[in-house]
What we know:
mainly alpha; rod-shaped
Amino acid sequence: MLLAPLVALGTQALAYALATPLCARQAGVWMHAVFALATLLSAWLCAVAWAEAKRLQAAQRSELDSAAVDRRGAQQRFLAEVAAGVAAISALSVLAMWIATWVLSPCQG
C-alpha cells in the first residue's frame, strides 16, 4: 500500500535531481523515460492490488459463513481495495507531473 506513493515521491525527487544534468547535455528524453517507467510501475501496482481484492472477494464468497473468517477476509479485501485506490492516485499524480514536464520544459528559463 505504501510502495506506489513512494514511487511517486521518488519520481519527483529523481526528476528534480536529473533536471540540471540532463538539460546541460540536452538529453531531456531521459526525463520522459523516468516518468513513463514510474507511471507504468504505479499502474501495475494498482492492477496487482485490484486483482488481489477480486481474488479475496471470490474466496470470501466460496468460504463457509464463519464470523471470524468473514471479518478477516473483509479486512483484507478492504486493504487491497484501498491499496488499489492509493496506487491509482499515485499513478495519476505521476502522470500529472509528466504532463507538466511536457508543457513546461525543465530546460527552459
